[in-house]
Design brief:
Elements: H1 7-28, E1 35-36, E2 45-46, H2 47-68, E3 80-82, E4 87-89, H3 96-109, H4 118-141, H5 147-175, H6 179-198, H7 206-224, H8 231-254, H9 259-281
Antiparallel strand pairs: 1-2, 3-4
């Protein structure tokens, strides 16, 4: 029988992240928050994002410990991080979703934080904590010996990946950054999240394929910046394009791509695109 997750460690990590997010969101609504101006037309970096980066490091380290403690990882050869004082085995592929659970939650909910009443603020934190909890538990079960269990866990992670893609794309679209900066952020998010989807498929060159998807997403933002649409609709359209490209590539690498799938994706994407355009002009 496969081991259960260490819920004591999982819940402790989630609580640390939720408390950290609560403090950071509270700091972020301060109009006099400390900002670092990088010069030129570069967007300023607030102290909130520095704290988010620290929270991501904490979550990644905690996730690494949780994953490496799984019995199935004991027999695997893992990447080694060579430090001046020690050599550590790490599992960087498992850092992506926990990290983006924090980044995406903060970037998305901060768009509403100035007007969020107390109850909505608490619900936003519960949603962020529930998302991270689901990611950590699902990642544990992707290592299960039973194929049906691991496949269901991977399906859950795929759904969460698309939710996080929507959150990140919407947040970047809402900033109104110049295309150069917005495309870089969209491309980076698209690359990491695409790799999360591709890394469970057989084949080589997955990093290169993920970079291509990220590049395509960055280029898509260029015409969208001339489209006067609410950020939720802009994020939805970016998600549709990301979903269509990544899903077809996943099926192709898995050897399950068929002409029927191409037709289904085309009809689905066209229908969703039509709904988005109609909502925009309404």
């Amino acid at each position: 029988m496969s081991p259960f997750p260490r819920y004591d460690r999982v819940v402790s990590l989630v609580m640390i992240v939720v408390l950290g997010l609560a403090v950071i969101l509270w700091i972020d609504i301060n109009p006099n928050i400390l900002r670092a101006r990088l010069g030129g037309d570069l967007p300023p970096v607030t102290v909130s994002w520095v704290l988010i980066a620290a929270l991501v490091v904490i979550a990644s380290a905690g996730t690494d410990l949780l994953v490496r403690s799984h019995p199935q990882m004991q027999a695997r050869t893992l990447p080694t991080l060579h430090l001046p004082f020690a050599s550590l085995e790490v599992v960087p592929g498992f850092w992506i979703l926990p990290s983006f659970s924090i980044i995406g939650s903060f970037a998305f909910f901060r768009l509403f934080s100035p007007g969020l009443p107390g109850a909505a603020f608490v619900l936003a934190l519960i949603a962020a904590g529930g998302l991270l909890l689901t990611v950590l538990v699902a990642q544990h079960y992707t290592l299960d010996r039973h194929a049906d269990v691991s496949q269901r866990a991977r399906l859950v992670l795929q759904i969460i990946t698309y939710l996080l893609a929507f959150a990140c794309f919407s947040a970047v679209y809402a900033t109104g950054f110049r295309t150069l900066y917005g495309a870089a952020l969209i491309g980076a998010a698209g690359t990491f999240l695409a790799y999360e989807l591709l890394r469970w498929t057989p084949g080589r060159g997955l990093i290169r394929l993920a970079l291509i998807i990220g590049l395509v997403m960055g280029e898509v933002l260029w015409p969208l910046n001339y489209w006067p649409a609410p950020f939720l609709l802009g994020g939805t359209l970016l998600l549709i394009i990301f979903y269509m490209i990544s899903s077809m590539l996943v099926h192709y690498l898995a050897g399950t791509f068929q002409r029927r799938l191409l037709i289904e994706y085309g009809v689905l994407s066209s229908g969703l695109l039509a709904v988005v355009i109609y909502a925009t002009f309404r």
